[in-house]
Amino acid sequence: METRRWVRRTGMGVMAALLATTPFGAGPAQAAEPAVELAGNAWIDIGGGNAAIAAVRSAAGGKVKNGTVDTASLTGAGIGVALIDSGIAPVPGLNQPGKVINGPDLSFESQTPGLQYSDTYGHGTHMAGIIAGSDPAGGFEGVAPGAHLINVKTAAYDGAVDVSQVIAAIDWVVAHRNDPGLNIRVLNLSFGTDSIQPSLIDPLSYAVETAWKKGIVVVASTGNDGTARVTMPAANPYVLAVGAADSNGTETRTDDTLATFSNRGTVLRHPDLIATGRSLVSLRAPGSYIDTQYPAARVGDKLFRGSGTSQAAAVVSGSVALLLQQRPGLTPDQVKQLLIRTADPLAKPDPIGSGAGQLDIAEAATLIAPLNATQVWPAATGLGSLEASRGTSHVADGATGVELTGERDIFGMPWVPVTWVVNARNGKAWTGGTWNGSVWSGSSYTGTSWASSTWALATWTGRSWAGRSWAGDSWAGRSWNGGTWTGRSWNGGTWAGRSWAGRSWA
Description:
By secondary structure, the protein is an alpha/beta fold. It has one domain (6-395, 410-505): 3-Layer(aba) Sandwich (Rossmann fold). 19% of the residues lie in helices and 16% in strands. A hairpin with a 2-residue loop joins strand 18 and strand 19. The chain is globular. Belongs to the peptidase S8 family. It holds the Pfam family Peptidase_S8. This is S8 family serine peptidase.
């Protein structure tokens, strides 16, 4: 069988919340910061302040233990957090039994022996560490170290991913949320597209809204352009749209500001709240794309720093796991209401760009769950265009440069929204390992991973999709070394990262 190599076409789109790892122009960093070691839970300010996850949680009240609140004992134990990203590397902090459960690998690397489920890009491992990393021996701890992660890999080593893969991944999470041992209550999407259609009809928006209404708290990054828009699917009004705060290198929150790269949105749709998203230090995936391309972002031997709304979303996802451990009966709407009501306004408020303010875990843990939290936004229909949902982010054939466009998925199967929305709404978009008429994965669980399957790939242009850089960095990360990469953000990428090499990663 022919092996396909998928690549993301460079452009100006912004899948800003999941995989980005290569700045526009893929130029060198302007001012590489020296690698430094963390000193306990304190911030490090050597050529730029590093944000330790423990310090971030502490500043948000996640380490409080007194007569009225005890967030210090909350670990997220028993809560499953699904991570649709570039995979998770089995590094210390993420390699203990039961920490990571592999869902299906829907990436273009799923057909390459030895690469299934792994993180050749580096973005997913960084997010996983922030959310639930736990390495006592190495002194690293994520926001919810007791939570378990469901790894649903969709992006390849360069961040390449099509929106149809992300939608398929969300549908899988919905279908398997209650499987034994999973208990998926949170879905982290550090990813976004510059969709050119309203969230009311966008299929990606419909997918996350369906997950929300099935009891999953969807946390999505808003993007890293610093512009007056919110990327899809954070544009959906039901989900938790997260922007990034800049700690300005200190532990105190009195000098925190809205990060310059964080998308502000508009009066109609903007971040619901913000969380620390600049220079966060998390787990490194040695040998991954971002690790080799941006060595200045390494912190010691095991850690890596990055900035973006991707990281901010991961902080919120871990915090939601803490709340759900404390009160498992909370609905997604109640969780959102609690976080918004208890958020701390910035010293210099920005009611649009910073939403309700900064995440405050301790306050949310003490507030009585609101009974009237039900959201009543108009329901999305999902009947819009798959191509419009891609925005400017397209994978392309590596030999001819022909892009995957139109109303078809990566296998060339026609996109029929009328049929899909019914199946997605009923949690039946997947039948075994089949989605949208093609076999995407195996149909059984091996005990540690969802079984893989050989793809019967359609031949589009005689070879394969080989788009390396997408059109807009869909993964949201921002600058991995605490500084700004020349060129501004990624190389095109849909995951929301910012200074990685993909623009869509948040």
